[in-house]
Design goal:
The complex is a heterodimer. Chain A is mostly helical. Helices cover about 70% and strands about 5% of the residues of chain A. Chain A has a domain at about 45-260. Chain A has 14 helices and 4 strands. In chain A, the strands form 2 sheets. Chain A has a two-stranded antiparallel sheet. By secondary structure, chain B is of the alpha/beta class. The longest helix of chain B has 19 residues, at about 125-145. The interface of A and B includes residues 199 and 201 of A.
């Protein structure tokens, strides 16, 4: 009863090709937007926003980036942390060396610099595929970590190699409070999500998926493999770069190469695997799963903190987390987004499944 | 069949040979494909039929010989360049994009014609949106023509084989090719599906004037729909001509039935 398309006739291709063709989906998106823009700041404590929601949103942007490359174009990458690091360092250098630059422009330029780096890293993808490409991107990961660990020019010569980010202002308004940061990130998330959603339903998105599903046939119908793969790398690392810059400026408030190590690359990869390859919604579900689940588990474990030693508690926490990942992958190997799709299809027919 | 326009050759093979290591797949094959005709390539398994198609659309480069297309000798053409020049094809084992639905699969066939840049597509605004909608209209015509409206939004991996073949034909047609290469378009179909497919192929040929080169094993179909038949055996051309002439060619009968020793 809740989720019915009946009676929603599309009378033009424009309506049929709308971003959310089903009315209930549009409502859901509007409700979600109202919730995050109006309700969340009213009910959530500063601790929840700064500690949970901000990282969740930033990881979602990073996951969208990797999903475009791996989920939509089929190019496995273990170097997403490197793209984030490039974005963070680029943003720091732009903001500190050219203070006149508006901060939003700084983030976008940082994304562009990461995109250029991504194209360089992706250039072997025409020749190598699958695990071999993954190893090539892994090399980028280690190279970037080494560069930022070695050359202090990138942090303006600071000896500690970890440096605080400069203050930010949007149109003269100083970004200081947690809520300011939250809204800034939210803006990037909303625009970035719409942009990505539009890309994947357009010509370029179809070219990406064509390369993923059958690259020989894609080339035969006139899709240029080089341009298609490199554009996926560029867009992917743009999102990674913006996410990295936001992570440094709005979350940890410092630039530190150790924050973007291999584990970060794997973490984003887990997000899209669990959330759903080739799904924008899946990026959010996956990021929520990876970011929120440990926190929820942690809270639950605190209930037992009297009876069980804390070291054992933390181990149990990790075991449950790992177990849940395996559980979800067995239930639905295509990720949470597919689970949601299946649920939607069932709801559409309910209560008459035949 | 459309009016054959004499001497208007769209594609010519001149002494084309291709070998992979020690294996020679085609040996000095020469033939010509006149514009607007339906040409069938037949031959026993392993005769080099699919290789011939792969050479035509640039997947393989010939080791020797020249290919003339639209009056120009081609050299080192990549598959996507062939697509730009109006060569489209289907594959023996359906090569659809399995994770995408029918509309999107056929839309990819029109990717070549789309001009919006990545940024405009990301905004999905103005010209980019108009372009998407215009091409969607063209795709809907193809869907209508191939009678696959009910599966428009179905992921093609879930479609039965016969329909997948039809979607693949649609994807090739979406590029509005000058020459259409069909690699066993009726393999694995029942009689009714074969008849439908024949009708589509002939309609394309007659209404759009598309030149068609097809590989097919069902001789009754080949004899019925083609204007000209080329017979390959062990990578060599052993016969060529009108269907009736080829049918009665002793060499062809020997190739198919075997020669008594």
């Amino acid at each position: 009863m809740l989720y019915r398309e009946t009676g929603q006739f599309k009378t033009s291709y424009k309506k049929d090709m709308a971003i959310f063709p089903i009315r209930q989906d549009r409502w859901a998106v509007v409700a979600m937007l109202i919730f995050v823009v109006v309700v969340v700041p009213l009910i959530a404590t500063e601790h929840v926003i700064a500690g949970y929601l901000i990282p969740l949103l930033i990881w979602s942007i990073a996951a969208i980036g990797l999903n475009i490359l791996t989920g939509y174009t089929g190019q496995l990458s273990l170097g997403h942390g490197a793209f984030m690091a490039v974005g963070a360092y680029a943003a720091y250098n732009l903001a500190s060396r050219i203070p006149e630059l508006p901060i939003i422009l700084v983030f976008l330029l940082a994304g562009l610099i990461a995109a250029i780096f991504g194209v360089l890293v992706g250039s072997p993808s025409l020749r190598i595929k699958g695990f071999y490409l993954a190893v090539a991107t892994l090399a980028a990961q280690f190279f970037v970590e080494w560069v930022f660990a070695t050359f202090s020019w990138f942090v303006g010569g600071a000896a500690s190699m970890v440096i605080d980010t400069p203050k930010m202002a949007v149109f003269g308004y100083q970004i200081t409070s947690t809520l300011d940061n939250y809204y800034l990130i939210l803006g990037f998330v909303v625009v970035g999500t719409l942009f990505a959603k539009n890309l994947v339903r357009s010509e370029i998105g179809r070219a990406w998926m064509a390369i993923r599903d059958m690259d020989v046939a894609a080339e035969v119908i006139g899709i240029q493999p080089l341009y298609t793969k490199l554009s996926a790398f560029a867009v992917s690392s743009f999102y990674g770069g913006v996410a990295g810059a936001l992570y440094a400026f709005c979350y940890v408030k410092s630039v530190d190469f150790t924050a973007f190590d291999l584990f970060v690359s794997l973490k984003v990869l887990f997000m899209i695997i669990i959330g759903g390859m080739g799904s924008i919604l899946g990026c959010f579900l996956g990021a929520t799963f990876i970011v929120a689940l440990p926190i929820i588990l942690n809270e639950l474990m605190h209930l037992f903190s009297g009876q069980i030693p804390s070291a054992m508690l933390s181990n149990i926490e990790h075991m449950i987390f790992g177990g849940l990942i395996i559980f979800f992958l067995i239930v639905e190997p295509h990720g949470l987004a597919r689970l949601w799709m299946t649920a939607k299809e069932k709801l559409r027919l309910w209560p008459f499944p035949h | 069949m459309s009016e054959p326009q004499a001497d208007n050759i769209i594609l010519g093979f001149d002494n084309v040979s291709i070998s992979f290591g020690a294996v020679t797949a085609l040996t000095q094959v020469s033939f010509e494909v006149p514009e607007h005709e339906v040409v069938a390539i037949i031959g026993p398994n392993g005769a080099g039929k699919t290789t011939a198609l792969n050479v035509i659309n640039g997947v393989y480069q010939p080791t020797q010989g020249t290919i003339t297309y639209k009056g120009e000798v081609r050299q080192g053409m990549r598959p996507h360049e062939a697509a730009v020049q109006g060569i489209a094809r289907t594959f023996q084992n359906v090569a659809l994009f399995k994770g995408m639905n029918t509309v999107d699969n056929i839309m990819t066939g029109r990717n070549l014609k789309m001009k919006s840049n990545l940024f405009m597509q990301g905004l999905y605004w103005g010209p980019a949106q108009r372009e998407e909608i215009a091409h969607r209209q063209a795709v809907e015509k193809i869907i209508d023509f191939l009678e696959i409206e009910p599966v428009r939004k179905t992921i093609v991996g879930r479609l039965p084989f016969g329909l997948q073949k039809r979607v693949e034909l649609g994807r090739a047609l979406a590029a509005e090719p000058d020459i259409l290469l069909l690699d066993e378009p009726m393999a694995g179909m029942n009689l009714e599906e074969k008849e439908d497919m024949c009708r589509f192929v002939l309609d394309v040929n007659e209404e759009l004037g598309t030149t068609i080169v097809l590989i097919e094993h069902d001789m009754s179909i080949v004899m019925d729909i083609s204007d000209r038949v080329i017979v390959l055996e062990y990578g060599r051309k052993i016969s060529e001509g009108k269907p009736d002439a080829v049918r009665n060619d002793q060499k062809v009968i020997d190739a198919y039935l075997g020669v008594p020793h």
